[in-house]
Amino acid sequence: MLEHPDAPISKKAKYNWLPDFVYGGIDGAVTTFAVVAGVEGASLSVGIILILGFANLFADGFSMSVGKYLSDKTQKEQFEKIKEIEFRHLKEKPEHERQEVEEIMALYGFKGKDLKRATDIITSDPEGWVDIMMRREFNMTEENIDPIKGGIATFIAFVLVGFIPLIAYVLKSPLNLSESQTFLATCISTISALFIVGAIKSRFALKNWIISGLEMALMGGAAAGIAYFIGVFLKTLLG
């Protein structure tokens, strides 16, 4: 049975890099694995696999990390802007804002003296007052995000985990591997890595680690399978 993880309650939690690392790693492994599988399906050379694989690894990794940075930055700026507006409203029209808090508390079942007392307590602290308005009026909470750290964690994970589908091809000549052995090693290592990353993901996704790992492995395998057969199709089509 899954339980909610115990965590200390604090106003400002330390940035948690693990979710960004996990999602970056998943995307890196899946996309690079798909590139490798597609090229294998088209029966192209190892050199082309390495060129396309590494190009995807760094270009897509950079693109994803920039997207993560911009998304988190926009979310943080939007939150701060609305929070600033709410603080201004407390000064400009406190009675109206107090009435809104009272209406919110009434939704939680407070009545009569209890309703007045709950409203008094909340409106006595501007930070708490604005926080509840943000949550109930705009459905916004202060997310534990750091745009720069999130972008860096995403890029590092993308490159590190995304490199796994390329390892066998980098070592193909030194280890004297055949084409089939190389691709088989790539499939086993990448699917295993996705299973491990999926199992780690279960730590914050509140899901059984085996199920989470299998989901990631199947997703990666499916993406690679699609890419492989597209490669085969295009090879046949182009003769």
Span from first to last CA? 55 Å
What's the helix-strand series? HHHHHHHHHH
**Portion in helices:** over 70%
| Helical run tally | 10
Arithmetic mean of pLDDT: 89
User: Given the helix and strand composition, which structural class is it?
Assistant: mainly alpha
> What is the C-alpha radius of gyration, as a whole number of Å?
25 Å
Describe the secondary-structure layout.
Elements: H1 18-41, H2 46-92, H3 94-107, H4 112-123, H5 126-137, H6 147-162, H7 164-170, H8 172-175, H9 179-205, H10 209-238
Describe the 3D structure.
The protein has one domain. It is built from ten helices and no strands. It has helices at residues 18-41, 46-92, 94-107, 112-123, 126-137, 147-162, 164-170, 172-175, 179-205, 209-238. It is elongated and about 80 Å long. The longest helix is centred in the N-terminal third of the chain and has 47 residues, at 46-92. Helix 9 (179-205) runs antiparallel to helix 10. By secondary structure, it is an all-alpha fold.
Concise account of the structure shown:
The chain is mostly helical and about 240 residues long. The protein has one domain (about 20-239).
What keyword list fits this structure?
10 helices, elongated
